[in-house]
Automatic annotation (TrEMBL):
Family: Belongs to the GMC oxidoreductase family.
Keyword Nucleus tagged: no
InterPro entries cross-referenced by the UniProt entry: FAD/NAD-bd_sf, Glucose_Oxidase_domain_2, GMC_OxRdtase, GMC_OxRdtase_N, GMC_OxRtase_C
GO molecular function terms attached to this record: flavin adenine dinucleotide binding; oxidoreductase activity, acting on CH-OH group of donors
Cofactor(s) in the UniProt record: FAD
Xref: PANTHER family: GLUCOSE-METHANOL-CHOLINE GMC OXIDOREDUCTASE, GLUCOSE-METHANOL-CHOLINE OXIDOREDUCTASE N-TERMINAL DOMAIN-CONTAINING PROTEIN
A Pfam family of this chain: GMC_oxred_C
Residues of the Glucose-methanol-choline oxidoreductase N-terminal domain: 88-111, 281-295
Organism the protein comes from: Polyplosphaeria fusca
Protein name as catalogued: Alcohol oxidase
Residues that coordinate or bind FAD: T94
Keyword terms: FAD, Flavoprotein, Oxidoreductase
Record's keyword annotation contains Flavoprotein: yes
Length: 583
């Protein structure tokens, strides 16, 4: 199936980016037949691409054109390493290449969004939209025997995104091993981590159609089901937005459309009668704003771009996660596709050392904020703004009763390897994404400043130590032959979480977890927000952002479930009127 080109170049809503954010908006806004909607997507349709749609083909898209293959800026805290940073480039966005993990967030993390000045953005406010997005497939009896569990109240059977377990899950045979090991270590079995409580050992579902093992990407979920019945919804494929074009009135800047390029040298304006909605993702949305003259005036003028709207926080305060792998050799040949994870809190990781570590973190918050600001483009934010959000994050992590997971330990088994990718879910380090050329077709500079702050290394080191403990705990211990990565020669058994040998190894091997957020954060203006609680860009009359870039803080879940939900909430606000109403 293909999305068609369209002769018209004027629509009520022009949406840039066909990922989960953009396609939820397209679907909901075009539900009114009198409202015309255009989606501009740089990539192609991958509806029939076997390397995308087949669940068993995961990763076969590597080397194809369905993704943006960025290289990060040199990471100055890790020997200037440059990392691969990926993003989907197709109708469906990054959901056409992602790992299909469906995991939402911890309640208190979403509640914290409200503390940043976003009225109504709390767990209870987002919950109906988590349900609305989901079309849950109840696991088969065989999948239940293999470990799949769920709480009925946490799921909806009728929504758009198919969520369930594939037939590859049936072939795995490790569920009880990981579960019993996690329980022996004191982690409770969590029947369903999608209900806002994530801690413990859990079995997660995936965004896939369980009947036929087909990936449920955003296009398959929100666009193709309505594509033929909505002549008012148009998708421009292989079309790249270059900048927003403006009209001016006295108080606010007004978008009149988007300048795009499609065929070589073919440049046109797609006009927006009501709104422009930017959904190009955490990496490209801030870049688009900057190419449109919205951002830090000093940065823009250095590139010869006139400032239409000074908004220095655009692109600032990027938060991403570092991904690391521990691996053990095993005599068994493991099969299937396990989906098991243990979510651990700071208390789980640091035990009796938690109070002193928490004291250390709180005592250093101002220093953390100063370090972050010193690494950002000058004047993008203030000490108070950064300190406020770091303190909220510290409270989430270090309260003695906190249930917020700070690390994800993902149990994978394949062939003769027991692999355990893991990551610090909530690093304190912050970076930025800014354009470095006046050419909108050039990618921006992406700099997460990984391991800017020592506390981030401690969390990863403590998680690695916990994984080692798991491999010496039955029943897992009886299946592991030797530690292959990092090996006890590289990091000796006695090394604690503050040991420099952990830090050295972690910094040498980590990759980006590809979960960038907060580059156009939803926060009050006083706290350096780029958008308000309706997704509206401050100072504009009719530009909204609806994608992962508005998430003001990192979450412990994987991002797509929350991007779908936040887009559903913003769309609902627009359709209901009130503050979310468009002009
Ligand atoms: C390798 C990888 C694995 C992941 N695994 C998981 C997982 O297992 N589970 C999970 O929940 N999340 C996962 N994620 C993250 C998740 O998929 C993304 O966070 C989510 O898709 C972000 O949605 P978005 O709408 O913000 O942007 P995107 O999904 O990135 O969509 C943005 C779209 O905008 C288009 N675009 C960009 N610039 C322009 C332009 N100038 N003009 C026109 N179009 C443009 C892009 O081509 C893209 O299609 C993973 C991410 C990666 C990279």
């Amino acid at each position: 199936m293909r999305a068609e080109r369209c002769a018209s170049t004027s629509f009520d809503y022009v949406i840039v980016g066909g990922g989960p954010g953009g396609l939820v908006m397209a679907n909901r806004l075009s539900s009114n037949p009198n409202t015309s909607v255009a989606v501009i997507e740089a990539g192609d349709s991958v509806f029939d691409d076997p390397n995308v749609k087949g669940v068993g083909a995961y990763g076969l898209w590597v080397g194809s054109s369905v993704y943006w293959n960025y290289t990060s800026a040199p990471q100055k805290y890790t020997s200037n390493r440059q990392l691969d940073i990926l993003g989907g480039r197709a109708l469906g966005g990054t959901t056409v290449i992602n790992g299909m993990t469906y995991l939402r967030a911890e309640k208190e993390q979403i509640n914290a969004w409200e503390k940043l000045g976003n009225e109504g953005w709390n767990w209870d406010g987002l919950w109906p939209y988590y349900l609305k997005e989901e079309g849950f497939h109840i696991p088969t009896d065989e999948q239940v025997r293999q470990g799949a569990t769920f709480e009925t109240e946490a799921h909806n059977l009728d929504g758009h995104v198919a969520v369930g377990w594939s037939s590859y899950f049936n072939q795995q045979n490790v569920s009880t091993i990981f579960r019993e090991t996690s329980e022996a270590l004191g982690f409770p079995f969590n029947k369903d981590a999608n209900d806002g409580r994530m801690r413990g050992y859990t079995v997660w579902p995936q965004t896939l159609n369980a009947t036929d093992d087909i990936r449920a990407d955003a296009a398959r979920s929100y666009y193709y089901p309505v594509a033929h019945s909505r002549p008012n919804l148009h998708v421009f494929l292989n079309t790249t937005a270059m900048r927003v074009k403006w009209d001016y009135n006295k108080d606010e800047v007004v978008a009149r459309g988007v300048e795009v390029t499609s065929l070589p040298n073919r440049i046109e304006i797609i006009e927006a009668k009501r709104e422009v909605i930017l959904s190009a993702g955490s990496i490209r949305t801030p870049a688009l704003l900057e190419h449109s003259g919205v951002g830090n005036p000093a940065l823009l003028s250095a590139l010869g771009i006139n400032t239409t709207l000074p908004l220095p926080s655009v692109g600032a305060r990027l938060a991403d996660q570092p991904n690391i792998l521990v691996a053990y050799s095993t005599p068994t040949n493991w099969t299937g596709y396990p989906t098991f994870v243990t979510y651990v809190t700071a208390s789980d990781l640091f035990g009796s050392e938690l109070p002193s570590l928490a004291d250390e973190v709180y005592a250093n918050i101002s220093t953390y904020a100063s370090t972050i600001i010193a690494d950002l483009t000058p004047n993008s934010t203030t000490l108070k703004m950064v300190e406020t959000s770091l303190r909220i994050q510290a409270d989430l992590m270090f309260d003695k009763d906190s249930t917020v997971p700070v690390a994800e330990i993902l149990w994978a088994s394949t062939g003769n390897v027991l692999a355990v990718p893991f990551w610090n879910l909530l690093p304190f380090s912050r970076g930025e994404i800014h354009i470095s050329s006046a050419d909108p077709l050039q990618p921006p500079a992406i700099n997460a400043n990984f391991f800017q702050l020592k506390i981030d290394t401690y969390v990863n080191a403590a998680a690695a130590i916990l994984i080692r403990k798991a491999f010496s705990t039955p029943p897992l211990s009886s299946h592991a032959t030797a530690e292959a990565i990092p090996s006890f020669a590289t990091v000796p058994a006695e090394a604690g979480f503050r040991d420099e040998r952990w830090a050295e190894w972690i910094k040498a091997v980590y990759t980006s977890n590809n979960h960038p957020v907060a580059t156009c954060g939803m926060r009050s203006r006083e706290l350096g927000g780029v958008v308000d609680s309706n997704g509206k860009v401050f100072g504009t009359k009719n530009v909204r952002i609806v994608d992962a870039s508005v998430m003001p803080m990192q979450i412990s879940g994987h991002l797509s479930a929350t991007v779908y939900a936040l887009a559903e909430k913003i769309a609902d606000g627009m359709l209901r009127g009130g503050n979310g109403t468009t002009i």
